[in-house]
Structure prediction request, 575 residues.
Amino acid sequence: MKIILNILKNYKRESILAPLFKMLEATFELFVPLVISAIIDKGIGQGDRGLILSYSGVLLLLALIGLTCSITAQYFAAKAAIGTATTLREKLFSHIQSFSYTEMDTQGTSTLITRMTSDINQVQNGINMTLRLFLRSPFIVFGAMIMAFTIDAKEALIFVATIPVLSVIVFGIMRLTRPLYKKAQGGLDNLLLVARENLTGVRVIRAFRKEQEELEKFRSRNEDLTFLQKKAGAISGLTNPLTYVVVNLAIVILIWTGAISVQHGILTQGLVVALYNYMSQILVELIKLANLIVTITKALACGSRIQDVFEVTSSMKDGTGCLPKKEGSAILEFTDVSLTYEGAGAPSLEHISFSVEKGQTIGIIGSTGCGKSSLVNLIPRLYDPTEGVVLYKGRDLKSLQIEQVREEMGMVPQKAQLFAGTIRSNLLMAKPDASPEDLHRALEMAQAAEFVEKKEGGLDAPVEQGGRNFSGGQKQRLTIARALLKQPEVLILDDSSSALDYATDAKLRTALKTLKDTTVFLVSQRSASICHADKIIVLEDGKVEGIGTHEELLQSCLVYQEIVSSQNTEKEAAV
Prediction:
């Protein structure tokens, strides 16, 4: 909650004025029973119509002033709540952006989305309701009790006995429901995870006819969430009936004792009505307070979940060193590098050592799950090695500024990712100031110019969310073009041509050979795609089985021989 309170400090004026105007509204409201008492005792009792009309005018004036104060308070409360939620959402998004891949893996996408949306909305409602009612309701409750003492101290003792009982009920229920609401938000995370997987994987689900199983899974998670919400709601639902019972019993006792006081001439009928109105005000405010407690309980639970995310810090610390102006013989060097993912039982990479000269093309090949992507993810420092050192231009990657390192690198991940917008906006992510000639050159090299020109609008053709209006091969070529537009010193293609046919793949490899000063890493399961590389690294179960040229590995590496023979590479390469 610290981060929320720190943001709320930026809205000090609104946070003071909102409850202040609510207190003014409550003050005027406390005078209403006295005015009604005067109308009954002096106006109706004495038959003075003029007095009745004048006091009715006072009631109308009090109502107008109260309405003005209420609207003003609502304005300031809404401004503070929405402003705080907006800033909190921006800070949370910025904080999540600072996470390394390790934190993103451990936190999970679904829970982060829930905290960015549902949780912050609950906090917003909590702030709004707190500024409006948190001081007003107790002020009315205790104010009504004090006003009762000004009328009759003996009758006011009923108020003194009632208020502590009501406080125990309200705050006791709050204490019970807070952990339940936190669990319910966790259940919402699980439900969102299932829904997200179904929406993104709908084609796979339908292809394997798993709709019914997924429906059962969703129903199970939904029922778990419903159970948690019902349990919390059932306890919260006790607030109103319990407070009604206590307050109505107090009203019965008040009317009974008040009637006796009227008979003995201690109180007038108007004063008894005033006492009744004060007790009714307490009832109404306690109902509001009970609902406020439920909202605050949810907001506190959600605020705690948001705070948990802010307390997660990136395990990857930015270096302070700058890239050297003079480069050594090797642009990149792995020295006894191992990588174990957070929570994994075994390392994904073990004791990897090799060096790469500037301008070389490096092929990385191996079976599925052997660690190819893990290896190239270490180059732009998406992960840090758990053992060993990765040197870039002779300097430890951990000692260099991450922004500078990634500025010199272009990466196309395994999963081609496009964003909603246009082809142009997706390409310009790599280089915002790129000229039309730069864009065309990158598309030509990525073998994407032909289909882009055929699109209505060309570079300004729309791209739907995730690039779903493009085929797999088109998406891959556009993401390759985006990386090439950057003109990086190190280009990493992580199995980014898997959806391309052999002819297009060959054209792409031919185009990449023209990049004389760019060091290219080609990750592929096709040996034909990397057989012309200057150096090929063969991985098996996270270990290097061989390093060398295509011809050298055919003579010395059994794993590479098996891959080549299984793929009939000579014929594929010829194509």
